[in-house]
Amino acid sequence: MTQTFPELLFVFEMANNHQGDVEHGLRIVSEMGQIAGRYGVRAAVKLQYRDLDSFIHPDCLHRTDLKHVPRFLSTRLAPRDFRRLVAATRHAGLLSMVTPFDEASVDLVLEHEVDIVKVASCSAADWPLLEAVAAAGKPVVCSTGGKSIHDIDKIVSFFDHRYVKDLALLHCVGLYPTPNAQVQMGFMHRMQKRFRHLPVGYSGHEAPDNLDVVKAAVALGARVLERHVGLPRAGSPLNAYSMDPAQTAAWVESAVRMREICGPPADKTITSEESQSLHQLTRGTFARRAVKTGETLARQDVFFAMPCGEGQTTSGEFVEGMVASRDYQENEPLTESRTRGPVEVMREAIHDAKGMLQEAGIEIGSQFEIELSHHHGPQQFRRFGAVIITLLNREYCKKLIVVLPGQHHPGHYHKEKEETFQVLHGELELFLDGQARHLYPGDMQIVQRGQNHEFRSERGCIFEEISTTHVPKDSHYRDRRIASSDPMVRKTLVEAW
Length: 497
Prior knowledge:
The protein is an alpha/beta fold.
């Protein structure tokens, strides 16, 4: 999925707005290519394929009382015309995408070498058609209009069992146009949480000038955005939910701006400009009285006020017990640096571990034991160690291991217990007898008795350890410095979590 949908993808849905005129369709493709190029976005033009002679029942071919039949027939294009539109899409620097509504159209998708197959909401439970779509071996985008979460579970399971790994889901409401009160964008957010391994986006049918909805979709992390587009012409105005080029450009621009506002879902970037701006309002620490070199400073010996000068001890950095490194006059700013002791290092690590558990949605209950394993001392805990949460230790043992970003747990083996690791959150690099293996959420690995193992994580990881009974002094380290140290010195038991 990361290959086809690595970032935000815009889908320009042509549907029947080519008006059954291939030259008109080519003009739409050209306009969409210019818009995508103008804003530097990744985009696709989507067509609809129907084998009308078999898709529509023969008794209904000439009925005018059926809403869609006359429109489909009046906008019919030949396969060669669709091939021209697909070729023009590629020439415009866009991906090609097609919604096939029958099995014969899936064959045409393959014949035209289309990049992505789209499943329409009305076809999302058409299992014979979905069998053909899955067998095509193409990336699939599936709209879910009119489908409950129960239905969507079945759809995801269907494609999963057919090894369609390149799958994206679109939240969609099949009302044309869709009023704001019926958009239900919060459901897209639920889909994102439920199907964390899949890109989830939004296929919209709101009024063409409504830009609020796309902003909400981007703000909630939509990975794919789809709208109907077209070109009006004399006697054939666009329908109430299709956008002309100017409206499409405004839609893309709104999404791009909101994406810029939201930023990437990674660590927060703190610029030097932001730090300097806030530092001007930060209180500094000043001597309340004259202080001699070597004096231990108490709270009553200092006061806090702004502005805080460059290199000055801030109010947040001051701690009682600081020792003056030089003489200070009354009202003079202190320039003492704060030394973070082992207790503070480990307390901050506990805060981060709790935050990781909360971000992963993992609750540990109220009965547990916490151990900070610091193999090279508490001061080196951020580099070497792990937070070990023992939830149960009987004939079987269950633990949660929190590996902080950049942390490395040194190589060791067990004589008594056998372990099974399963990653719940993040990524883990595990070394078994020197062989590296990268584990991702859901991946599992058995560690046998006597098997050397060590692990680390660049961005942080939480994994579950299921093992036979854990017994003391059963971790045998290869590093002689660790092996020769007292086990109780290289770990800290935490009572207040």
